[in-house]
Fold this sequence. Notes:
It is an enzyme of class 1 (oxidoreductase). The protein is of the alpha/beta class. It has one domain: Rossmann fold (3-Layer(aba) Sandwich), CATH 3.40.50.970. It contains 12 helices and 10 strands. An 8-stranded mixed sheet has the order 4-1-5-6-8-7-9-10, sandwiched between helices. Strands 2-3 form a two-stranded antiparallel sheet. Helix 1 (21-33) crosses helix 7.
Amino acid sequence: xxxxxxxxxxxxxxxxxxxxxxxxxxxxxxxxxxxxxxxxxxxxxxxxxxxxxxxxxxxxxxxxxxxxxxxxxxxxxxxxxxxxxxxxxxxxxxxxxxxxxxxxxxxxxxxxxxxxxxxxxxxxxxxxxxxxxxxxxxxxxxxxxxxxxxxxxxxxxxxxxxxxxxxxxxxxxxxxxxxxxxxxxxxxxxxxxxxxxxxxxxxxxxxxxxxxxxxxxxxxxxxxxxxxxxxxxxxxxxxxxxxxxxxxxxxxxxxxxxxxxxxxxxxxxxxxxxxxxxxxxxxxxxxxxxxxxxxx
Length: 296
């Protein structure tokens, strides 16, 4: 943690819920990006918690944009800055609803065109800003206001959708591992072209967990293998250190589910399906990492 700058890029007293995972992630994203940065934020929790001018949370410029248009906005902004010879970082910071659902068309188009910006999806696995309705990123079995008995289908595999665009850099992260976030953002911003980082951001009110448990729950997600930390730089796929250690002996997924009130209606059958899905994904990731090592 010693390499992370002490200077804070976010001001005190944000209007977030206590224990907000997305704000914790943003703190280290901006430490990595620095002052020469513009944030593009569509409708989401972070478009509200930033405050009202002139009493703003951020110390960098922020462009609020319509739900579906974040990637399109960042595309035009990046093109204009590059045409002027400026290297200002353009970063989209969007929730899972504005990424996996409402904003996916603009995101796909920008990635296909090769636009030069970093898109970061903070994933609290629901539409948190409007009361925790289910999104495509909501996991199987999770209770939301629109799935009161638990979601009956699996979480959308956003990372494999993005991976199909063959980006120069793509990664996953979790707000419980700030040094990992910092390093991945620094690397992403050093590479030209489109970049994508998918960050798991536990949400205490939405996940029905105590606000002081945000970091612990995020680490449980990684240690159980339900969330794997990795990065892919061009064709080189690498599993990050916390997940490499976890994959040797993953913690039971059931412990992760029981720690959250949103999974309280998950029965044994559904829990077994979730565990099987995790086991299958871990095998796929281990194989991809091994194949990447063989081709080096």
